[in-house]
Write the structure tokens for this entry.
Amino acid sequence: MRHWRALGAISLGLLSGCVRLPPPPGQCTVATAWSTAYARQRILAPLAPQQIRIIHYSVFAHPARGPLCGTITLHKRLSVMRGPGDLHIAEVRDFYHGDVLVAVHTARIGAQVSGSGRYTADVTLPIPGNAPLGRYTVVSLLYARWGNGPPTRLASSRTHFQVIR
């Protein structure tokens, strides 16, 4: 009799949509745009020409757990003081599953970070239907280069999220 009650409860959950079954591998449609659109929230004082200082740089994932075919959003915060000049800024995000590098994404954000200020951005990451389950680490690195000079690593941040069924 207990088995029939459990089966009935499972059937009711499936019919009402309360239980989410994982999609077949590779059987979901996910967007692939990982665009980064920083918006300045506050203006800060400028520095002398060709100088830059990162005051704060953070990246965190929300929600911290996402299902296959779902999404995770990276919330990014950047406070920078910079001088005028031809500044190229790149944000490189390395995605690790365990200790294995599984993806790299580079965004050139120099045009968006055009002056001293506090900036925010959100990036929605799709989770493919065939992504391995488990914990992921995102390491985000910020590089800058004045004119044709060599790139310099300015800051880094890391966050974690988990892919679940």
